Amino acid sequence: YLALAASLSLLSGALILAFGLFRLGFLSQLLSRPVISGFISGSAVLIVISQLKFLLGVNVSGATTWQLVYSLSENVSHAKPMTLLIGAVALLVLYSSRMWMSKALGRAGLSDKKAGFLVRLMPLFVVVLATLMVVEFDLDRKQGVAVVGSVQEGLASFTFFLPSLASLKLLTVPAMILALIGMVQNITMAQALAIKRRERVDANSELVGLGAANIVAAFYGGMPVGGGLSRSAINVAAGARSPLASIVSAIVMLCIVAAGTHWFARLPLAVLAASIVIAAIGLIDVKAFRQAWSYDRADALALLGTGLGVLVLGLELGIALGIGLSLATLLLRASTPHIAVIGRIAGTEHFRNVERHGVETIPGVLFLRIDESLFFGNLNAVESRLGAEMEKAADLREVVLIMSGVNRVDTTAMEVLSDINRDLASRKIRLHLAEVKGPVQDRLICSPLWTSLSGDVHLSTNLAFEALRPLASVPFP
């Protein structure tokens, strides 16, 4: 199993490295910010629930919220009072220090920088104090307080190997799944932290680093590695500002593993759990949901769905659900384009929605602006809106499609526009186009629509307005 774990790390690392080298980091953009926020918030709640077993001193199992909660409910009667007391006190101290200690130290005369430094030292102070208490009163042996326990000292040795053919057959699919999940999860975490600090993430560089780390870990007998949510939360809570924080952490960890693991043998797990819980609670972003709900209900539902997906289904399926919700939201918006009947503001060359402004219109002429690229998924909405407007105007003679918001017209859309042109012509109505963008026009020129168009192609909406005003009463030829 150790060899298979190292092989899995090597294979998934090679795949992730290839993703980065071939610049496939754009795949991470499948997740919108609300979905990322939902993923982080759901994961934070899941982490909090997963740490309750250490705070209570009981054994539980399960990967999803319901499994963990059910297991906790079955074992809560076996909670160890001393473990619960240590965890509760640690939670109270850490929460109080985060919420009020900085202000209290400021009122005592300390500068913000010194106060912030002392606040960040509180988790370390709590860990040291709790460990000393366990040693002094022998709480792990007398009261059953769970501790880290003995960890073998010494550094792993470098061993070069290549997976056997049998291992490749066994691990190919798991390695692909692990690489995909690792890629999305790590970049999602990086993006979430970058958003909080208004920074940008180079997804391809992240993947190259992550892939290389997995490959190196494999040759030292390590498991597949990645950026964990709980570790990132602790890092941020401690005030980390750059990758140097991770380098320092790695160096300290190497020193501890090499010669200092005995210092942590009697560190109570309840205190570590309390530190993780406090850090994870800070990642639950209720404000993002309220903001999304007031601005865009579809984004808010995607946020909520991703968060609940992580809680109910677990991290991996939660990420998959988040990607699905992001794509579904995108398709929903693209398939329901904003379409407006427009007119000219008197005395200007500006055109606006007739429902929002008092504008000039031409009897018998319909100016219809489509604010979305035309593709097979939204043509029904365009045809339905055009049909509805035609029913309102019995004396319609001219229809002008304003294409200023159309960046692309696919083959299906071109054919549908040709059908609309023929249908309007059979009703003695001319079809015109205005403000067609260059790349769109380059394609349409080679299409049947361009040669069979019953009306004209106008450079601007205002030129179309001026050209059609005197022709509005001219019969269809």
How would you characterize this protein structure?
This protein is mainly α. The protein contains 19 helices and six strands. The protein has helices spanning 2-21, 33-56, 65-75, 81-107, 112-137, 139-142, 165-197, 203-219, 229-237, 244-259, 269-281, 286-295, 297-313, 315-335, 379-392, 411-426, 438-444, 448-452, 461-468; strands spanning 339-344, 351-353, 365-370, 398-402, 430-434, 457-458. A six-stranded mixed beta sheet has the order 2-1-3-4-5-6. Strand 3 (365-370), helix 15 and strand 4 form a beta-alpha-beta unit. Helix 1 (2-21) packs across helix 7 and helix 2 packs antiparallel against helix 14. The longest helix has 33 residues, at 165-197. The protein is elongated, with a radius of gyration of 31 Å. 35% of the residues are buried. The model has no long low-confidence stretch (mean pLDDT 87).
